């Protein structure tokens, strides 16, 4: 059962790929919780299992993935035991996702408005969809007229805003953001991070943030879990982990982030 | 250190008349031998157009570029081909920069063939092996396909290919932007090592001042096609003069 304070509780989750000697334990006995209105960051380098953990929550994992144990508690039920039909009712309406590549996340032959409307058609019957679309675009500071624009007519930053608008279309309780700014310029990244921070307050959104960059963690997250090879090696309050990292791997990840004011003789150091 | 490249009042204009876009406006700067020169700015500011003009992938509309004492802004034919041996380029997206149906080593052999380096196939293949050594990749991997490599490894391959002609200047257009921070740190270290070992100079194009701070000697900040600020990288970051530089600085996530 989820307690009153937590919107999501992942307990002892294990997700494997392959069989026998070739088994890859992408997620290996992982537990974490996301509190109401809280932002949790899962940090790790590529291949650490952070994205598979995030996708597991609504069983969006690739077909080859095997759930080997554990549970994902959301809204009083274990997501892993729900049918596809029940999961479809939750995906997009109660839990929604934004991904890294805004350019490939939209269908190039439909307008932005059409694609936002699709989510509304599925999950929110009987509302004035035109009004709602313009309200959603407003929320992410885009002009109404962009509803009739096609993805190729927009910049990467604008598209990522549209994706956020689409994700918020059904007022989800949990937003999973998988490297939402990795493909963007730092200046645009700053805008998107500010927007996410503002929205999480405004609509009391809980956010599960996936990233490889500790700089972003420090900006947005209340809590952080550091993942390495499918396991969580360190967790805690963001400030505490940043100020006093305990695990070597956490220290290495932090040292890899380029700083504006590197320590003397510093510079970035690669992972060992 | 001697001047390697001098760029004077360079302009790049795309299109004609009312629809023309003035991508690079009266840009002047120089790069010394063995120097890593950073060029920062946001998307659309003209930094890639400037990089491409220097490699002559785009023709400058006006202005002068002097490389090792020769004016290279108007080179054609054989002279341009020779210039390309001295100035090479690495792009942002290593996935898009390699032919998926060609073994990566052969992509490098091709470069050597075009420029008639090496007497025969065996010699060229040997040269590919050396290049793989120098970028920290296993020699045997040269005869594999691009999809068998990670993003960081692919970027190393692209760097090896750019080094094949022993250039003096490498234009690196956002070479680490598509990579994880941990892989990014490895590639930055590799670029630093190439500078120390070979005296290679870089024009390092990036949108991230923090990355620039960690690898470059000097930096130019570009905005709307113009260089608005230029200087030693520590000076520019610690004492930014232009408002736009300050904006770029405040965008960097820090902790």
TrEMBL record, chain A:
This is Oligopeptide transport ATP-binding protein OppD. It comes from the Bacteria. It is found in: Cell inner membrane. Residues 8-254 form the ABC transporter domain. SUPFAM superfamilies: P-loop containing nucleoside triphosphate hydrolases. Coiled coil: none annotated. SMART domains: AAA. Keywords: ATP-binding, Cell inner membrane, Cell membrane, Membrane, Nucleotide-binding, Translocase, Transport. One of its GO terms (cellular component) is plasma membrane. GO terms for biological process: peptide transport. It comes from Pontiella sulfatireligans. It is a peripheral membrane protein. The keyword Cell membrane applies. One of its GO terms (molecular function) is ATP binding. Belongs to the ABC transporter superfamily.
UniProtKB/TrEMBL annotation, chain B:
The keyword Cell membrane does not apply. GO terms for molecular function: ATP binding; ATP hydrolysis activity. GO terms for biological process: transmembrane transport. SUPFAM superfamilies: P-loop containing nucleoside triphosphate hydrolases. Residues 7-249 form the ABC transporter domain. Gene3D superfamilies: P-loop containing nucleotide triphosphate hydrolases. This is Oligopeptide transport ATP-binding protein OppF.
């Amino acid at each position: 059962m989820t307690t009153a304070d937590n919107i999501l509780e992942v307990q002892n989750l294990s997700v494997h790929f392959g069989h026998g000697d070739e088994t890859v334990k992408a997620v290996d006995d992982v537990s974490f919780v996301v509190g109401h209105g809280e932002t949790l960051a899962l940090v790790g380098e590529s291949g650490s299992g952070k994205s598979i953990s995030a996708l597991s929550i609504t069983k969006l994992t690739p077909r080859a993935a095997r759930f080997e144990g554990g549970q994902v508690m959301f809204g009083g039920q274990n997501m892993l035991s729900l049918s596809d039909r029940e999961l479809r009712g939750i995906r997009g309406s109660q839990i929604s996702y934004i991904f890294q590549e805004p350019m490939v996340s939209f269908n190039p032959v439909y307008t932005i408005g059409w694609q936002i409307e699709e989510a509304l058609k599925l999950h929110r019957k009987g509302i004035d969809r035109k009004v709602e679309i313009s309200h959603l675009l407003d929320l992410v500071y885009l002009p109404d007229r962009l509803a009739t624009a096609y993805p190729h007519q927009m910049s990467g930053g604008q598209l990522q805003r549209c994706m956020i608008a689409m994700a918020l279309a059904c007022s989800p309780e949990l937003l999973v953001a998988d490297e939402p700014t990795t493909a963007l310029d730092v200046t645009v990244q700053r805008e998107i991070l500010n927007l996410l921070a503002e929205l999480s307050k405004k609509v009391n959104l809980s956010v599960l943030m996936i990233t490889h960059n500790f700089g972003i963690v420090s900006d947005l997250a209340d809590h952080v879990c550091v993942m390495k090879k499918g396991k969580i090696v360190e967790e805690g309050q963001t400030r505490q982990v940043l100020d006093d990292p305990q695990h070597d791997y956490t220290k290495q990840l932090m040292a890899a982030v380029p700083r504006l004011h590197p320590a003397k003789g510093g510079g970035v150091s690669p992972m060992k | 250190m001697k001047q390697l490249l001098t760029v004077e009042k360079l302009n790049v204009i795309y299109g004609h008349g009312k629809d023309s876009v003035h991508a690079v406006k009266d840009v002047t700067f120089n790069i010394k031998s063995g120097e890593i020169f950073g060029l920062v700015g946001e998307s659309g500011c003209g930094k890639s157009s400037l990089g491409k003009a220097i490699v002559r992938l785009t023709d400058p509309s006006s202005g002068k570029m002097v490389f090792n004492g020769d004016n290279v802004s108007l080179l054609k034919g054989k002279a341009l081909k020779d210039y390309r041996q001295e100035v090479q380029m690495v792009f942002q997206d290593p996935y898009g920069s390699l032919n998926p149906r060609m073994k990566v080593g052969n992509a490098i052999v091709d470069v050597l063939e075009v420029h008639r380096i090496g007497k025969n196939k065996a010699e060229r293949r040997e040269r590919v092996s050396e290049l793989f050594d120098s970028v920290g990749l296993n020699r045997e991997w040269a005869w594999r396909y691009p999809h068998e490599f990670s993003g960081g490894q692919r970027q190393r391959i692209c760097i090896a290919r750019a080094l094949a002609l022993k250039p003096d200047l490498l234009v690196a257009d956002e070479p680490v932007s598509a990579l994880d921070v941990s892989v990014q740190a490895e590639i930055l270290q590799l670029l630093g090592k190439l500078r120390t070992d070979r005296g290679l100079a870089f024009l390092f194009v990036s949108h991230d001042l923090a990355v620039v701070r960690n690898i470059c000697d000097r930096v130019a900040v570009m905005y709307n096609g113009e260089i608005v600020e230029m200087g030693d990288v520590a000076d520019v970051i610690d004492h930014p003069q232009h408002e736009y530089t300050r904006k770029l600085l405040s965008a960097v996530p820090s902790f």
